[in-house]
Amino acid sequence: MRRDIFQAIADPTRRAIIALIAVQAMTPNAIAEHFDTTRQAVSKHLKILTECELVTQNHQGREIYYLLEIDKMKEIDHWLEQFRKIWESRFGQLDTLLATLKSQQNKI
After folding, report:
1. CDD domains, per this entry (predicted)?
2. Pairwise CA distance, residues 43 & 32, whole Å
3. Across-strand partners of 67?
4. Which SS3 state, helix, strand or coil, does residue 1 take?
5. pLDDT tens digit string along 34-60?
6. Which residues contact 42 (CB under 8 A, 6 or more apart)?
7. CA 20, CA 68: separation in Å to the nearest integer?
8. Considering only CA atoms, which of 35, 39, 34, 67 is closest in space to residue 53?
9. Are 42 and 31 in contact (CB under 8 A)?
10. Beta-bridge mates of residue 66
């Protein structure tokens, strides 16, 4: 089952897992140590992240390490770009308005 990448970031625990493995690949046990939850709960989150193709598994001997697929994060960035442009435009308009008001204030 392929999930949408936005399902991956919808949950705060999954966002925290993403932040952890963005720094370095980790085993499920190492990830679980950072949370006040069971190893099984972390495994369910990792399964969703894997189904979203946001993380991949790297088998090293008997250990499985989870790695972040940083290129997959670009999908989120592309979606956010439209809102970034809107806000940058609004901030630009606000800057113009503030500069006009300041100019008018200096004339008085």
Report:
1. HTH_ARSR
2. 9
3. 56
4. coil
5. 999 999 999 999 999 999 999 999 999
6. 13, 17, 28, 31, 32, 35
7. 9
8. 67
9. yes
10. 26, 57
Closest CA to 60 of 106, 25, 18, 19: 25
Question: Checking phi first, is residue 38 left (phi over 0); if not, alpha (psi -120 to 50) or beta?
Answer: beta
pTM to 2 decimal places: 0.76
Token pair for 49? 């992240």
CB 28 within 8 A of CB 41: no
User: Which residue's entry shows tokens 């790695």?
Assistant: 67
Structure tokens at 96: 């113009």
Q: Which two tokens stand for residue 17?
A: 């897992």
Q: State residue 104's pLDDT score.
A: 87
- The span from the CA of 7 to the CA of 107, in Å, is 54
- In this structure, which amino acid lies at residue 50? T
- The count of other CB atoms within 10 Å of the CB of residue 49 is 26
